[in-house]
Amino acid sequence: MKSNVEVLEDNRVKLTIEVDEEEFDAAVDAAFKRIAREVRLPGFRPGKAPRRVLEAQLGHQVGREEALREALPEYYSRAVVEHDVDVIAPPEIEITRGQESGAVAFDAVVETRPRVTVAGHGGLRVEIPAPRPSDDEIDEQLDRIRRQFAELEPVDRPAVDGDHVTIDITGTHHGEEVPGLTASDYDYEVGSGAVVEAIDENLRGASAGDILEFDADHPDPDEEHPLHFRILVKEVKRVVLPELDDELAAQASEFDTLEELRADIVERLTAMRVAQANAALREKVAEALAELVDVEAPAAMVDAEVDARLQDLVTRLRQQGVDVGQYLEAIGKTPQELAAEFREPAVLAVKVDLGLRAVADLEDLWPDEERLDEALAEIAERAGTDPAELRRRLAEAGQLSGLRADLAKHAALDWLVEHAEIVDPDGNPVDRADLEFTPAGADEDTTDAAAADTASDADDTDTPAEPTESAEEDEQ
Fold first, then answer.
1. Strand ranges (DSSP E) for 36-131?
2. If we measure between CA atoms, which residue out of 425, 464, 364, 432 comes closest to residue 126?
3. Domain limits of the chain?
4. Which of 286, 290, 311, 337 is the most buried (most CB within 10 A)?
């Protein structure tokens, strides 16, 4: 087989492929063997009729048409791999010679991934959550512990927000009691908004012994008639918080002192905030890069990305034992509506993919053979196979280019993160040292595993850094 490639307009190329008569005759022979398994001829077992007999009975053109249908996609795929054509859509194939006999030649015109510009990629400014907890956040965690160990003390005064009241409550609608709104000796926190807002409005300022009657809007906006409530206030109790001291720390945790408890809270909050900040940094950088991409996302790439996301959802639902039809019914959506929801994030993912490839080109971040070998060794070790064998299989399948692209895009994202201007929600610059976390007692150069894992997960999944490569391979 011989092939060459010609660059056309609008991000298309034309592959011209020629297959000599001897090579194509092997494909015709294979086609007749497949046909033999499908037909029944007197005197021959299924699959055993020789080609000459089938040609005599069915005509030689039957086998040739079958060979063209089956072999042309294989020839096309080989040419794509040979010329490393970055295709993003199915080809338009036109047979130019050999449809009836002899050698075969055909043209395959196919859309390729566009090259884009990303002016200003070295000066991205992104906003991320503050990577370190504030004193107020730490105090809120301590107050939450105090509330867990709080006591209720009866008081002889009107109720205020935060108090607990013991009530008998009856809710009716059209004169009929509503079971979920009727209870005796019910403990209710004033200001919690746990049922309807009108309950809190009437309980504020109420004292033990008061009987309250009022109407309230029905939570169902389509219901015109209001709810009616009758509430007997039996008791008002205030919340008494324990002292924030060593005794509470020992009671609420494994620590003996309040200082140790506070230090643990600070460490856990810091690990969480650093992980969230790093994940947000990569996500925001990717989104900012997408805004610089100077072309529309190719429809073929977007369609492939939407299909990949839908297939991923279907796979996850099946793994959980959930029927896809039941899931769609539960969320009240058609397959078309669900696909439409995936379209916007798919467009973003495609633009990020194009942008990262452009940055890799501009900053010379495509992996050399040594880096590729390192990646292959890592993958082979996880898969329990030989790196050389893995390389051979990927090369034959035309997937080495995809691996190179993945490595280049990850390197490009790292480069962008390193060069981005980072600010917090108030617009203040973020110290990059605050994006690192070392647990108490660990070596200084050891990054907290939770933070590292979270940031890595965001890079691999949440950050819309690249369309699904498998979808592109399916197109080929």
1. 92-97, 104-111, 125-127
2. 425
3. 2-111, 151-240, 258-475
4. 286
* First and final C-alpha spacing in the chain: 18
Identify residue 392 by its one-letter amino acid code: R
Tokens of 102: 């002899």
CATH number of 258-475: 1.10.3120.10
Q: What is the distance between the alpha carbons of residues 305 and 170, in angstroms, rounded to a whole number?
A: 54
Output phi, psi for 167, to 5 deg.
-135, 155
Return the H-helix or E-strand segment holding 234.
Answer: strand 227-240
Quote the radius of gyration of the chain (alpha carbons, Å): 34
CATH of domain 151-240: 3.10.50.40
Give the Cα separation of 38 and 379 in Å (integer). 42
Tens of pLDDT, residue by residue over 340-390, are 999 999 999 999 999 999 999 999 999 999 999 999 999 999 999 999 999
Same fold? 151-240, 258-475: no
* pTM, two decimal places: 0.77
Helix (H) or strand (E) holding 188: strand 183-189
Characterize the bridge pairing of strands 12-19 and 2-7. antiparallel
Q: CATH 3.30.70.1050: does it fit domain 2-111?
A: yes
